Amino acid sequence: MSSTELPASPTAAGAASRVHAVRVAEGERLRSVELPGLTLNVRYRPSGTPGRAPALYVHGLGGSSQNWSALMPLLEDVLDGEAVDLPGFGVSPPPDDGNYSVTGHARAVIRLLDAGGRGPVHLVGNSLGGAVATRVAAVRPDLVRTLTLVSPALPELRAQRNAWPTALLAVPGTARLFSRLTRNWTAEQRVRGVLALCYGDPGKVTDEGLLAAVEEMERRLRLPYFWDAMARSARGIVDAYTLGGQHNLWRQAERVLAPTLLVYGGRDQLVSYRTARRAATTFRDARLLTLPEAGHVAMMEYPEAVARAVRELIADRSGDGRGDGARS
């Protein structure tokens, strides 16, 4: 494994050119982790605070490590947090093997943790990232101290109507057709559509936040693999929903040993609020935070509430919320 610091500069050369126009919040840095057949971008917040426990944040479909920029600073005094761009998203290029399945993404997370020697970590995932984190916690319990899932993409018998386009995106050829049909849409139109779908109240997005999202959308649309990564990852979610046996995500949820925090939004249009009760009874050691006004990305809409719940989870796991950072 090799790791390269990526200055967020338009004039930077080599690997750093991939971060052109990528926003980096105050206190954040980016680095590129090179693994065989895989390169992952990692966003982190350096701090001199000793004894912090390691944490890894995993975003959802179409998201990136930027989705955690509101939550990470609220926990940086207790967590040595890193947020990863999954393969093909954010600044991470596509994987050499083209595997965008939930298992493929989980394998990327496991390889990152193994290579960095950071496990066990407090693992936090949203949507697709929640499904990925569930699989990681089930198959590699040695890597996970606690598990926090924000609107995790776990199989539903009756999917939300607004989630149907994601399933359709998984159909071969649909992504290319959609890209042609929407070629005249501006980046701002696309972003406003995503915000309306993902936020309980899109009005909570600041002008600066909207500008950053539009800039990021413009950057992504220039990537030659943008639609392919979206389509294949959507197909990976659909495939994961249909798997039976030991690979079924609910079966894997039953195997998770780590204390688990489940966060659900009452206005979530993509993951049904009804799923919260099943999840709370499926994970062995679970606690539930419901936010009636939140949508699909509670960590972006209500970061303070989510941070408080994560702190409580960590404190219960470690006894004092800080001593968990030490490793033997």
From TrEMBL:
<dbReference type="InterPro" id="IPR000073">
    <property type="entry name" value="AB_hydrolase_1"/>
</dbReference>
<dbReference type="InterPro" id="IPR029058">
    <property type="entry name" value="AB_hydrolase_fold"/>
</dbReference>
<dbReference type="GO" id="GO:0047372">
    <property type="term" value="F:monoacylglycerol lipase activity"/>
</dbReference>
<dbReference type="Pfam" id="PF00561">
    <property type="entry name" value="Abhydrolase_1"/>
</dbReference>
<keyword id="KW-0378">Hydrolase</keyword>
<protein>
    <submittedName>
        <fullName>Alpha/beta hydrolase</fullName>
    </submittedName>
</protein>
<dbReference type="GO" id="GO:0016020">
    <property type="term" value="C:membrane"/>
</dbReference>
<dbReference type="InterPro" id="IPR050266">
    <property type="entry name" value="AB_hydrolase_sf"/>
</dbReference>
<dbReference type="GO" id="GO:0046464">
    <property type="term" value="P:acylglycerol catabolic process"/>
</dbReference>
<feature type="domain" description="AB hydrolase-1">
    <location>
        <begin position="56"/>
        <end position="301"/>
    </location>
</feature>
